[in-house]
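Journal club side-thread
Mid-discussion, someone asked how the predicted structure for our own chain would compare to the paper's figures. Pasting it here so we can look after the session.
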Amino acid sequence: MNPSRRTMLKAAGLTLAMIPVVAVAARNEGMRASMKYRDTPEGENRCATCNLFVPGKSADAPGGCMIFPGDTEVSPNGYCVAWAKKL
């Protein structure tokens, strides 16, 4: 096998492997935009006090959200229109 052909096949394989990752990230950005997500709170309302928020490893660490599947970069101080008071 020619080294340049091998390099091309590796690049093509990596490109194909990244398609699902890019698709999920793009979908979450679209979800964030449609939910008007931002990294700042809306008065007293913030992600850390939302019923849909999944806390990160510490109180200040980014967590997840049930609205944004697979997204682990949701700020505890963020806000979106789906905010629901934690029970």
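Post-session note: Residues 29 and 59 are 24 Å apart (CA to CA).
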